[in-house]
């Protein structure tokens, strides 16, 4: 580690996203002077390797954030609510990967390719959007900028790792059970805390997070509200249906959009995607080239393909958007935010 | 078997759908005097049990249809094109489960709950629609009738059994490979005949059938064109994105619709679904009750849930529609057509 650089803390260091955060900090060679790894009492004592050195994970307390410059949080909403104010009080900037503060007016909700400048408004806490929101807005922002955007309808194909390690274990255990002709005993998905659970192996569950009174799930409302906030379009029409699938990692999205401008071609959108930051165009259907979640795993980009004009709406287009939900959807975007803070001189 | 009743033939008797056709004929106690089971030379000689008797599968020839009243076809489009005219010439009515004749003006495309009366126009061949189309129109027809229908946008979550037994075997083999840490060697999906194949286990493939010049797949265009034909709405706005998933059986669909009438409530659509033929309403999200493909397997009905009004469009609604693609999507609908032919005195 450098003697210059920043004191960085990761809260939730032993979780699926936390581990990716640590790996991403290492891969991106983020300027770190000191790395503090924090978790609940239960996981404290674990040892994590970072740039060849072993770091012991400590139980998080308010004082853990003493001297920390940047704290990456990914340990659940209630933990964020408890510790973020404590960290900010001690001078840290918190990049929070939970939904705890995302819709707070005072908290910038940032995807660096889309609204990096919003970071200037931060008051200590910056929110990392929901995984399924991030990959969608990375693709939609260039379209909004160039052609205007009027409507977004998305159906998601989401991987279990978004629900944590227990969900991954459950997927593989159930898959094994079914292949062996045994019964399955669902305990985690769709929502760990709820009373009823459904089989995820070789199945599709149209529920991610709990239901709201309007019939949408919290996950769906996150996609709807966060998209409007990040794109600075409070009256954008957005609807979402979120579905959990037997895939370990990699979220896919079937997205229908309507642009404002007339005369836009499929080719125009393809060329735009090709040149957009953080986007990789994979759109050669005649060669069976389109984004696949299994191919996106371990990559930081958002993959876009199957772009085609609607057959009825001249301003309507369909897209298939895929990304690694643990990286661009979570850990990578958080580290990118930290990088932007450094670049903008905000830390 | 009865001495009264009909001489029924099943072409493609050893395939995934053919076997379900035979099982459905038995379960529904269809009035059969004689059952002729036909296949390619390769599968001829197989023995199939029907109502406690063993029937030997024969190689199909034009003369196999001599004396047959109703022939259920499910052996691929080219086989249908070859044998359907021969069967009709010999006096049989063909219920064809392939896409060979579906869009022919002379051929009724029938889902009995929706457009049974179209059977009166038949000239020997009746087409069974695509699996993903059938389950959608069963749910949409009552809505069209009651409230009018203006627009349909669907993203599908389709099971591998729609691509036949090889695809099922491939899903389970790849799943086993991945659980054992071994490599996979895709050979079947997304389209058996094409050069390139993609992993289906723990993945999502946004291609079903080959691509057309407009960027849509044939499967997507089937959903679009067949829906218009079955609902007798040539100018209905329909778009589809079809995705293959690691699920053995049970297609799911995330469907957005716009009705014509104002003032329709979510509750109105729910009550309508509850009373519609062939539909089971499963819509108690607060109790985590919604359609799941794993629960639909082996059942003849179409399951509808997650019904909710769009947050921006007063006439817009979202639905989640699930059915067994081998039953209502294929075998059961074909046998239902045969039953309708009997009921209407058309055979």
From the structure above, extract its key features:
globular; diaminopimelate biosynthesis (chains A, B); Dihydrodipicolinate Reductase, domain 2; 30% helix; alpha/beta; NADP (chains A, B); methionine biosynthesis (chains A, B); homodimer; 14 strands; Rossmann fold; 347 residues; amino-acid biosynthesis (chains A, B); 22% strand; six-stranded parallel sheet
Describe this structure as you would to a colleague.
Two copies of one chain form a homodimer. With 347 residues, the first copy, chain A, is an alpha/beta fold. Chain A has two domains: 6-128 and 330-343, Rossmann fold (3-Layer(aba) Sandwich), CATH 3.40.50; 133-325, Dihydrodipicolinate Reductase, domain 2 (2-Layer Sandwich), CATH 3.30.360. Helix content of chain A is 30%, strand content 22%. Chain A is built from nine helices and 14 strands. Chain A has helices at residues 16-27, 77-89, 112-115, 131-147, 165-179, 218-230, 266-274, 293-296, 327-343; strands spanning 6-11, 32-39, 47-50, 53-56, 58-59, 70-73, 93-96, 125-127, 149-157, 237-241, 251-259, 279-281, 302-309, 316-323. In chain A, strands 5-2-1-6-7-8 form a six-stranded parallel sheet, sandwiched between helices. Chain A has a six-stranded mixed sheet with strand order 10-9-11-14-13-12. In chain A, strand 3 and strand 4 form a beta hairpin. In chain A, helix 4 (131-147) crosses helix 9. Chain A is globular and about 60 Å long. The mean pLDDT of chain A is 97. Chains A and B meet through strand 9, helix 5, strand 10, strand 11 and strand 13 of A and strand 9, helix 5, strand 10, strand 11 and strand 13 of B.
């Amino acid at each position: 580690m450098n003697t210059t650089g920043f004191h960085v803390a990761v809260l939730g260091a032993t979780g699926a996203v936390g581990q990716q955060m640590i790996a991403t900090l290492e891969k991106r060679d983020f300027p770190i002077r000191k790395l503090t790894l924090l978790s609940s009492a239960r996981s404290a004592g674990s040892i994590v390797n970072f740039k060849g050195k072993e770091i012991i994970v400590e139980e998080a307390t308010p004082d853990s954030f003493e001297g920390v410059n940047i704290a990456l949080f990914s340990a659940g909403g209630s933990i964020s609510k408890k510790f973020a104010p404590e960290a900010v009080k001690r001078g840290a900037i918190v990049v929070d990967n939970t939904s705890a503060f995302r819709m707070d007016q005072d908290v910038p909700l940032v995807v660096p390719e889309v609204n990096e400048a919003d970071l200037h408004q931060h008051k200590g806490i910056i929110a990392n959007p929901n995984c399924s929101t991030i990959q969608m807005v990375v693709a939609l922002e260039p379209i909004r900028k160039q052609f205007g955007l009027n409507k977004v309808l998305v159906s998601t194909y989401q991987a279990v790792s978004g629900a944590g390690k227990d969900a991954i274990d459950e997927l593989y255990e159930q898959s094994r059970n079914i292949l062996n002709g045994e019964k399955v005993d669902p305990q985690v998905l769709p929502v760990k805390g709820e009373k009823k659970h459904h089989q995820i192996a070789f199945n599709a569950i149209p529920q991610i997070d709990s239901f709201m009174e309007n019939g949408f799930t919290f996950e769906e409302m996150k996609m709807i509200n966060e998209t409007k906030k990040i794109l600075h379009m409070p009256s954008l029409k957005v609807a979402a249906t979120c579905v959990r699938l037997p895939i370990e990692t990699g979220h896919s999205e079937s997205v229908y959009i309507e642009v404002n401008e007339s005369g836009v071609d499929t080719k125009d959108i393809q060329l735009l995607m090709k040149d957009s930051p953080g986007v990789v165009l994979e759109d050669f259907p005649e060669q069976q080239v389109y984004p696949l979640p299994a191919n996106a795993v371990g990559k930081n980009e958002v993959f876009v393909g199957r772009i085609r004009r609607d057959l009825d709406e001249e301003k309507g287009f369909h897209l298939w958007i895929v990304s690694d939900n643990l990286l661009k959807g979570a850990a990578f975007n958080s580290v990118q935010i930290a990088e932007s803070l450094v670049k903008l001189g905000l830390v």
